[in-house]
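Order emerges. As here.
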Amino acid sequence: MQPAEDQKYTVKLDVFEGPLDLLLHLIRKHELDIFDIPIAFITSKYVEYIDRMKELNLDLAAEYLDMAATLVLIKSRMLLPTPPEEAIEDMDPGPDPREELVRRLLEYQKYKTAAEQIAALPQLGRDTFPRGAAEAVSVDQELQAPGLFALLDAFQDALRRAKIDPTQEISVTRISVSARIIELLDVLRRRPNATFAELFDTEASRSELVVTFLALLEMTRLKLTRLHQAGTHGDIHVVAAASPEEAERVLAAQRMED
C-alpha cells in the first residue's frame, strides 16, 4: 500500500525499457536458451514483473500488456494436444508465434548490443577531455547503467531484508516522493557512492520502502542521480548528479509541466 499523498504519483517509464528488454532480462537472469524458451516459465515470470510494476503504480505502456497477451497465446497453443497428421495436412496453421517471438528477440538483441558497444566508446567530457578542461571525477569504466528490471530485482531484495511484520498496522506518518528525493540527495551528499541497498532502511515499513524506490526511479528519470552496476549481478551504486537545491528547482518545474 502506498502513502495516500502519493496515490496518484505515477513514475513514467519513457527513459527505461520495454517488453523485449524484460524478456531478455529474464532469459539472462535465469540462463535460458533463447532458441528454446520455456514458455510456461517465462510467461509466469513476465506476469510477476507486470503485477509488481502495477503495484508500484508505474506507468505501463500498452506494449507490455500486448506482449503478455502474446505469451499467453503461445502458452495456450503449446498446451493443446497435437492433432493427427491427416488433420494437419488439411489445416493452415499460419506463422508460429514462438518463432516470431525468437526472431524479434534476436533482432532486438543485435541492435541493443550495438547500441551498448557505441555507448562504451570514449566520449568527450566523460572519458576524454579537451586541453585545459577540468577532468571530471572518474567512474569505474567496468560499471554499466542498470535497467529498470535489475532495479526491480534489487527492490525485491530490499523488501526481503526489511524487518516487516505483515500483521503490523501501516504507519500514519507519511512522506511524499518529492520529499524523499530531497532526503536521498542529502544522504548521497554525505555518502557520494552509496549502494542501492544502503538507501533502504531495514526498519522501514513497506510503504516507506515503496516511496524510496519510486523516488530513486524518478531521480534517475530526471537525471538527478546516476546508477552504475558492476556486471549483471553486481551491486548497484547510486551517485548524486544534483544538489538538493537543484533538485527542488527541477521538481518544481516538473510539477508545473504536469
Summary: Residues 168 and 205 are 9 Å apart (CA to CA). Residues 4-257 form one domain. The two ends are 24 Å apart (CA to CA).
